[in-house]
Amino acid sequence: MSLLSKCGLIFLTSITIMGLSTNETPLMDPSLSARELGLSKAAFTDHHFNHMLRNPATIAKTKGIAIHANEFLGIDYSSITFVHESINTSFGIHYLGSNIDSMKRSVTGKNSNGNPIIKETEDLIPYEYHAISIATAKKIDLVSFGAGLRQKTLVLDNRTTTSIEGIGGITIDFLSHFTFGFSARNIMIEKETENALQSTQPIFSTGLKFAATKRTSLFLALIENKNEVTTHATFHTSVEHYLNDFIPIRIGLDHNRYTFGTGLLLDPFEIDIGWAQSKSDVLPDQITLSFSYALEEKNHLY
Amino acid sequence: MKHLLLLIVTSYLLYGTAFDIEVFKAGPNPLVQQKDGLIINYTASIPHQSDYYIYNVTGQRLKRISFENSSHCNTTNAGECNFELLSTIEMQQLHKQLIVIIAVFKANNQTIKKKRYVIIK
Q1: Are A83 and A63 in contact (CB under 8 A)?
Q2: Of A72, A73, A101, A160, which to mutate for an interface test with B (greatest number of B Cβ within 10 Å)?
Q3: Which one of A13, A50, A231, B26 counts the least CB within 10 Å of its CB?
Q4: Residue of chain A whose Cα is closest to the Cα of B36
Q5: Distances in Å between the alpha carbon of A218 and those of A16, A31, A54, A175, A208?
Q6: How many residue pairs bridge chain A and chain B with CB atoms within 8 Å of each other?
Q7: What structural domains and CATH numbers belong to chain A?
Q8: What is the pLDDT of residues B49-103, one digit of tens each?
Q9: Could you tell me the fold of the domain covering B19-119?
Q10: ipTM of the complex
């Protein structure tokens, strides 16, 4: 390992201490892939089609299809990503969907003593969430650019709200081992309402990837998300190391909680699982499962 | 002696007051802002302590309300607990979205968790 690599390794791992200083719990983002979750949302500088929603520039020169599944607070989310390249430009589409089909409609009344009571009916209340995104990216020499649009639809009984937001990003490779990345997302173009899934504040992410070796990469990110933490940006840092040609191990610090991930790479097919710690006794940990097929061998470990 | 032991165990199982929460409901569902407050109904086997957490679907805690005992329950029949957890005005402060109500009940060193979804529109 060169002196530059050693210095980079020490710098990036020392950042973890700074992230432990606050207590806010990072919120669940159902659109995160297993790799992104395991790498504490800091991997948006790495070129991979699964990072399209965090930084559309990262889909440049990549292609593949992936499905992701996760569950949080008893609600299931499924998503699919497809990225392909044509005329030296990459195009991506992502869909995320969720629904609850067991929620009973209920009304309130009073019992004989005047106390409030709930009467459930057999009628079910529709609840659905859909988010569809498109993006395009191009790489010119060491610089990649990307941009996209995201439409979110929330169905609450007979009320449907839609929002449209923009996403954009850039990555720059430098000094052969490093990649710098910046992305702006959740840029509101059209909004009808504000809620947890249709948040309104923009999210700015700045990150650095350091490829220490062919098998080991370190990630550092600073994310300003006023929908989550209003007072300051949060630190995210993680490391990915391939134990052999097939098994990656990912460990990260997502602001103030630990994340972990592993997988099985049978190039170009990959299965990943990501875990993020819950900071609350009441909330469950976050777990995401991804199945990816890169449409071509990456050979990045050789 | 065996018969006496059997009688004691059977009596305990039949008449012992194990902690249980039944028919836990939160509503109305959907809850209409400026019209409805959030009502909680359930039946408890013994007096208990309770904590109510209200989260949105991304895990952000919106409210937490704790009761040290069952005095808020408006109990009429054995164990029934019917009360308004959040008033109409308090519900107006929340966004129109799906909320998750997690109730944690504690008694006799036992903890029972219940979860319900309510749509605010």
Answers
A1: yes
A2: A73
A3: A231
A4: A108
A5: 12, 22, 17, 15, 8
A6: 110
A7: 3-243 (2.40.160)
A8: 999 999 999 999 999 999 998 888 876 666 889 999 999 999 999 999 999 999 9
A9: Immunoglobulin-like (2.60.40)
A10: 0.87
